Each structure stands twice: as C-alpha cells, then as structure tokens.
Amino acid sequence: MEKKSSTKKSFCKSFGDYCREYSKVTGIHGVQYIGEKRTYFEKIWWLIVFIIALSSCVYAILEVYYKWIRSPVIVTFATQETPIYTIPFPAVTICPESKTNQSLYNHTNIVRKILEKKSLTEDEQNTLNYISLICNGGPHLNVAKGKFIDENIYEVLAKVQFTSPLSFCKYMGKLVACDEIFEPIITDDGICYSFNVLDKSDLFRDIVISNSNFHNANRTHNDWTIETGYAEHLDKHTYPRRALFSGLANGLSINFKSTIEDIDASCKTGLQGFKVLLHLPSRLPLLSQGYFRVPDNEVVIAGVTPYMITTSSTLKNYDVAKRNCYFSYEKELHFFKIYTVRNCKVECLTNFTLYYCGCVGFYMPRENGTRICGVEKQRCMLHAADKLHILNLPNFSDLKNKTKKHKFHGNFTACDCLPMCADLSYNVELSQSKWNWLPAYRAQITNNTNTIDPSSMSLSKLTIFFKTADFIYSERNELYGPLDFLANFGGLLGLFTGFSLLSMLEIVYFLTIRLYFNVKLYGHWSGNDN
Q1: What is the pLDDT of residues 444-483, one digit of tens each?
Q2: Do 296 and 165 contact (CB within 8 A), yes or no?
C-alpha cells in the first residue's frame, strides 16, 4: 500500500512539475501566475480572473458566430460609380383609360340599355362579355355572361380599340415614329403600348400560346443580361435600347392625343388620361402592380434613378436560404425564359388560379388547352389571389394540405419567388403641371388646314430621362469570409487571453513531441527533475 501511495505521489509531483514548466513558457496571459510557487490566495485569484476572461471570450465568439449564422450576407455600396449606358433604358408600358372607339362600341349606351331593361343584340352581348373584363364594376357585370371565354377576346379588343394615342415620339434627341418603337401588348388593363420590352420569343417559352398581333418587338436577340450586362463590342444600336447620356434632351418624350368623342364615362368610371409603368425589359408588365398617371392636358416629367444590386461570386457556395436570392441558373420558370421576381409571382398566380378556378386570366401566360376565365369567374380570380397571399400563414394549414394534393407547374404552396442575386429597378421622381397647348396649337395651323378642331381634343406630354450620368449600385457580400472569421475569432482570443496559433501549437507540443523526447533524453515523460 505504501508503494502504491509513493508511486501516486510521484506521478502527481511529476504532473505538477510538468504543468509548472508549461506555465513558465506559455504565452497565454495569467497561466504563468497560476503555476508559480506562490500563496493559494494569489493562485485562486488568478484562476478566477482567467476563468472570467475565458468565459467572456467564449461568449463574444458565440455572439459573432450566431450573427454570422443569422445574417451571413451584408449589402454594401460599390466603391465607384457606374455609367448609365451599361444598363438598359427602362421599358415603358402605356395604357389609355379610354378603351374603345365610341363609334364601334359605346359602353355607356350599353349600360343605359341595361338600366332601362332593354335587350341587347347578340353582337352587343358578345362584345360586352369581353369588354367587361377590363372595365371597372357597374351594372354591366350583372348582365355579362360566361364562365369561360374563347380566343376571340383579343380580336374583339383590337377591333373596338381606337387608334394609337401616341402622336409624337422623340428618343435620344431624335424624332422617331411611335409605331416603330412602341408595340401593342396585352396586359391586365387590356391593350397597352410598350417601349423597349423584350420580344415574346425572348420572354416566353415555346409552350406559351401567344397572339401574333401583340408583344412583337421585332428584335429576336437580347443583347443584355442582368448579370453580365452588355458585351463590350456592341455599339449604341443595341436592344434593349440604352441611353448614352442623361438629361431631358436624351430621354424619351411622348405626346398623347385623345378626342372628346372617345371618352367613355362608364367603363373606367370617368377616369381619363394614361397609366404608365416603368419596368425591366425582361419583366411582364401588369398595371395592377403599380403605375403613375398622366392626366389629360398636363405635362409630366419623370426623372429616373436606377437602383441596381449585384452579388459577389463568393456567395455562390452559400445556401440559397442564407443569401436569400437566386442566380440566373438556379431557378427555372415554366412559362418564362428569364427569371425575375415579378415573372415568378405571375407564374405562381397563374398556376394557383388555374387550380382554384379552372381557368386563367386573358393576360396570363398559358398552354394550349387552358381555358380563359370569363366575367363569372372574376370573383373566383380575386379570391384566388387573396388566398395565395395568405397561403403560408400558420392559420391556414387546411388550405396548405388541400393544395399539396394537386399537381401543377411550380409550387404554389410556397411560390419561392426570392429576389434575383443581380437585380435592376427604376426609382421615379415625378413633376407635373397644366399644359395650355391650345393657343400654341392654333397659332401653328393655317385657316385652310384640314385638321380636327383643337377644342374637341386633349393633349398630354410625358418625358422620361435619367437624372444622372452615373449611379452607385449595391452589392451583396459575405459578412465574414473564412479568413475574416478566423481573424475575428483569433482577435477575441488574443484580446481576452493572449491566445494565438502558436499557443495552440505549444499545447500540442507539450502533449505529444515533448513527452516523447523527454522519455528519450531523461528516461521519464516529465523530463529532468531539475
């Protein structure tokens, strides 16, 4: 028993001497005081101080780690400005409030017939069924019929539409024919006119049914992408069009003309003028997503400031949920060739509307065999949009389970429409004033000029331009790279304890190499007793 006790004491003494030897040479703060042959009070005091410092260090490191886990991506401004000719001029979609030529279809007369309980002719009834889809609420909705409509809606809308209201166009300081740069397009507001929008062959996949009379930009090659921009070898004649300079003289200027006789007070409840939407050329324009208005007999000036965000290539290795955005190759849409948040949401709404109502809106992308919703399905479409918005709320689990049983293109239980890692939008600042154009118009015409009476029409003007020649874009970067996190981790350890990489190697050395060579040199793992 005494031999065992002596051996145990010998081991404890050797272990204490070995730890004391380590404490003399280590660079970790405070440890050398614990290993000195001093009073127990001093040793305990330094031990408490060391534990507090180490605990504080661990707490600070965990806070940095959790911050990195919660938000690994940070958005910063670029260090230099970017010229505006590296991005396209915004696509401009213009929708007149007056939807029909009154000599071809007078919606007010139809409403009066309904109120007076007069019967409608077959042609009037058919046209009403189509026009009711783009008019605001009124008594005509109680008479319009049909859960579903056919392809004739596009021909009927084009037939009763009055001629283009765009009478004067100027771009980059040069006069251009309006019908050369504006193309008719189908939107949720009926027939509109778009400038600088991508051709339907560049926007939609081949499975999408499209009318040959709409959405034709006559440019079947897209020279610009959101991630790579324009190629350096391209000249100024590119598509989508770009503005080489800023200022009013280098923007897009449009004059709108409308006549008093084409004003329909019942379809749009008396609203007159034009709706204008600025958007990305690769985005499908929908006026329900927001617009600004150009009233009759007013001049509106829209100063555009681009807002662009890019993403560092170092984030490609991050999980999508962490960086909260998609690169162009990561997300494919069923109807659209190009992923944008709006295109994704339009596709998601289309799929959910098809599931919920059995049809889609006339302005939505669709495949062959998909039915178009008529007037009697409009309420269902509104309910579908509302339910889609609240589908992911926790109180609607029953609806979630129900939708999961239905197969369709995409996942409408969670649209998964994350922002693009590289995105571009246009912020607009508006100013407007009354336009007393009539005296100037009369001063420029001769007595024998065969023209419309100026008092029977209205003119409006819209000018869109870039406010500055350069802009600063934002960039998503990783909050901590591997070296940044290591430096932060090591900095906290060094601040609280003086710990460094060499300190770690010292510990490894004392636990391995030194033990081995102590045995070889002195015959015992604790080394020389002296």
Answers
A1: 666 555 555 666 788 899 999 999 999 999 998 888 777 7
A2: no
